Amino acid sequence: MIVEVIVDVAAYPIDRPFDYIVPQRLETLVERGSRVHVPFGPRKVQGFITNIKEETDLDKSKLKEVHSLMDVEPVVTEELLQLSKWLTNKTLCYEIDALQVMLPAALRASYKKNIKLIDSSALEEDFLALFGKKDIVSYEVIEKAGLLRAMKKYLTDGAVQLETVIKQHAKAKTIVKYKVTADREFLVEQLNSLTKQAVKQKELIEWLLQQEQTTFTMQQLIERANASNSTVKALIEKGILEKEKEEVYREISSLEYHDKDQRFQLTEEQTNALTDINHAQEHAENTTFLLHGITGSGKTEIYLNAIENSILKGKQAIMLVPEISLTPQMTRRFKLRFGDQVAVMHSGLSTGEKYDEWRKIWRGEVKVVVGARSAIFAPFKDLGIIILDEEHESTYKQEDNPRYHARDVAIWRSEFHQCPVILGSATPSLESYARASKGVYSLLTLNMRAKEQALPTVNVVDMRAELKNGNRSMFSVDLADAVREKLDKKEQIVLFLNKRGFSSFVLCRDCGTVVECKQCDISLTYHRAGEQLKCHYCGYEEPVPTTCPECSSEHIRFFGTGTQKVEEEIAKLFPYARVLRMDVDTTRTKGAHERILKQFGDGGADILLGTQMIAKGLDFPNITLVGVLNADTTLHLADFRAAEKTFQLMTQVSGRAGRHDKEGQVYIQTYTPEHYAIELSKSQLYEPFYHTEMLTRKQYGYPPFYFLTLVQVTHEDVMLASEYAKLATDWLRANLSSTTMVVGPTASAISKIQNRYRYQCLIKYKKEPLLIEKLQQLIKIYRTEWIKKGVILTIDLDPSTIL
Ligand code: ADP
Ligand code: ZN
Ligand code: ZN
User: Domain of life here (predicted)?
Assistant: First the structure.
């Protein structure tokens, strides 16, 4: 018997299955989708069985044997095996990467390098000392001791040998239990033969005889039977009790809440939407629904109902939310409705906890998974519905190999399972809305808030005017007054600082002008080195101006503020306010998010100050004021999605206010109040925004009118980076269709990451039948030639950002 194995080596000539002989002892055990250890060159590596066959075209005598089988049952289902093939082609990754991404980290192998002692007489004393009494020492120990150079020499001389060992991550957690293995007769017999002194043992046997249960933990025996460690041991020796290990799931600790599940009479709009979804579930139609509903319109309630439906049919459901660990409130709603049938998967869990949740899904012990992006690979076998909440969120796209979008995977799986997909959002991505307009997706609309609360009143504050009036603070007079008023009323306030890490632009504080590229309609990016402004689309650059090109003001400078600075200012302006800050710094520890949110929800603070991470999911009745300190930041990102992202963010943030009985107020501070993204987010006017933005996209040739592929080249040497970027660009230009545009090469907006210079080119096309084939050829050139020069080439089909 022969198996085809995809080995855990991501390298070009190896990106295909290899044949191995199955030793007889494993013949009845091997299955497609199981992991194996196989010899590969001098090493042993992990791999996945993707096929089983009797014959091979290769010379059988040269084939190696499978070393061991790691799973008695496959870890990758037949469906996911097929999906991995599709993913490999769709994202141009190695097949092994596509397989690994579908599994929890605990099942991915990592390798440990060891150095084995061969000839001790050849070694210097300090090196030999590292081994102690053993003949193996880990690579890290040698590295720490600063003896890598010596090791290299010994390796060549053959005095030591390098060994790679596969290391497994988390294991199933087990607890020890004690089981009564003997029958009653034996117990009674033992009881009678005990000496008078053995009081404790007598008591324990008598107690055991009275129990129906046969398995106990030590704690139970101690607490309930008043036994001791040594008594239990004595009974084990007598053959009455036996020690055994039982697998248990790790308890995911959670804070204590006192809320209950609420069921509502659905609104008319909700009912209509559900009717369509039910129909698709009923008739096993793989319709993709775009559920467009304003904030607070009751989308989540629809999700809950659709999932319930699917459970009633004996099927399972995947519920994706962006960065779930950030919205414990959302998870709670699902746990309250479905209880133990819910598995949760997000980055806040430990490797072991994730493994446990994954096994519950795999074994069919749960019916729903609520999770972040990677939960889309949950190994359910009979899916009834797949839902992506906030479908426009860029976190659904993985920015690393394989560069997949969860939405694409969802649609693939829905075809496989013949079940519907729901994409939900108050502010759908332009791509999805365009597809819905064309009838590719089926559009469901919710125009009313579920509880019929009014949308909050939104005031846009012109910060240029504030400056003119001599107010240099981050708070406009109006916002500061509003904060004071709410503090007096003991209502809660959310302050949002719009912040996007590295990217910065130059802004005139008098007239709001942002310096842009004349050819690309994209803000120029500020580069501190050389005080330059650069366009990373076309390569145009100019020095940072000292006066505004529009109004000649000298108040022109690069823009960016941190939350800490805002916190200091709050302390000055509102000294009595209790402030909670939520940003990357305050949420580093496990569970910090949830703790901060809970503290705020419990009324532990007056003001919650935070970045993007507070924009979503917050649903507290006492929040009546939301202030956006700087709406412009995302607006001037050097990205064609800047306006879209700003509109989405403003709508989301405003949606946090007045969700319950009390009316909400929102203040948006900006230097460009007239921009349509800000103007239209005031009343959550999605459609007008969509149409305006589509005009810009059409004019400049961006999605959804054109598809994009981003090709990036990095190198430690700036000259080589730009040289190979040019090679790649020229090659693509020469090989792709003439209607396809290849723009570049140009320096990336983030021109250097981890000491590697970054250059890029952008492929824009409407139809390019050659695309995948040509990109594969380019990758082949890269993997066979360029890679040796230290170049790294990455290709992102449908990038979510092009920084
Ligand atoms: P969305 O997900 O669209 O922002 P939610 O599902 O969170 O909206 O609903 C907003 C609020 O309205 C929640 O507090 C929810 O409990 C409530 N709600 C949802 N559906 C109904 C309904 N049919 N009747 C009354 N309240 C509802
Ligand atoms: Zn440009
Ligand atoms: Zn100006």
Answer: Bacteria
